[in-house]
């Protein structure tokens, strides 16, 4: 996050009336969006944390990497959970 902030700080004083500033800010957001998607950071969301969800990097039973979104604050290394997949590498824990 600190890496991204260094690119955004110069845009704190952007005047949206100047086309060059708007284009530069648009390019920065485009690059950040591409980075978030390519680095699988899309699932990192502070809003989820505010409503009580936690994110874990884990592995499936067949040893595939997975991002697990759950309400648990701790996940044991041998825990088995029921998951609804929403992507190749992300899932939401199903609670009973």
Jot down its keywords.
20% strand, alpha+beta, single chain, 96 residues, 33% helix, four-stranded mixed beta sheet, 3 helices
List the helices and strands and how they pair.
Layout (H helix, E strand, L loop, with lengths): L1 H7 L10 H20 L7 H5 L3 E6 L5 E6 L12 E3 L4 E4 L3
Parallel strand pairs: 2-4
Antiparallel strand pairs: 1-2, 3-4
Low-confidence stretches: none
Strand order of the main beta sheet, please? Answer: 1-2-4-3
Helix content: 25-40%
C-alpha end-to-end distance? 35 Å
Q: How would a crystallographer describe the biggest sheet?
A: 4 strands, mixed
Mean pLDDT: 82
Silhouette: elongated
* Number of helices, counting only DSSP H or I runs of 4 residues or more: 3
β-strand percent reads: 15-25%
Q: Helix and strand succession?
A: HHHEEEE
Q: By helix and strand content, what is the structural category?
A: alpha+beta
Count of individual beta strands: 4
Radius of gyration: 18 Å
């Amino acid at each position: 996050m600190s890496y991204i902030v260094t690119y955004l700080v110069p845009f704190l004083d952007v005047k949206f009336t100047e086309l060059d500033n708007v284009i530069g800010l648009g390019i920065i957001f485009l690059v950040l969006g591409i980075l978030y998607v390519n680095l699988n950071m899309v699932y990192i969301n502070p809003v989820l944390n505010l409503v009580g969800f936690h994110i874990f990097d884990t592995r499936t039973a067949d040893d595939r990497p997975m991002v697990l979104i759950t309400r648990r604050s701790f996940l044991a290394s041998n825990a088995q959970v029921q998951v609804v997949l929403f992507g190749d590498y992300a899932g939401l824990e199903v609670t009973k």
